[in-house]
Amino acid sequence: MEQPNTDVIQGTLDMLILQTVSLEPMHGFGIARRVEQISRGVFKVNPGSLLTALQRLERAGWLDSDWYQTENSRRAKFYRLTRTGKKQLEMERADWARRASAIARLLNAEG
Fold this sequence. Notes:
It is a single chain. This protein has a single domain (13-107), classed as Winged helix-like DNA-binding domain superfamily/Winged helix DNA-binding domain (Arc Repressor Mutant, subunit A, Orthogonal Bundle). It contains four helices and three strands, in the order αβααββα. The protein has helices at 13-23, 28-38, 47-59, 83-107; strands spanning 26-27, 63-69, 75-81. A hairpin with a 5-residue loop joins strand 2 (63-69) and strand 3 (75-81). The protein is globular, with a radius of gyration of 16 Å.
């Protein structure tokens, strides 16, 4: 049996990153791991896509970052949500809920 696709749905990576970082500041590898854990393995984040998205979110002012030592004594860039990032996350959540509701209506439509 073919394995289901575990790529993050196109257009949702920013929202998933913002949501994950809203829980606590974390480094890139931690973000990818947390998305996979919370989604129970349904979503896996491509490291290249994650790096590009983190840079884009920082440029947009939705994330801020600082370098810190990790638990295993490595330097890592830790990201945290900014005030404008919180507002963006709220807008993205509302948009996602609207779209998911529309899809559910379509899937449950009877002819």
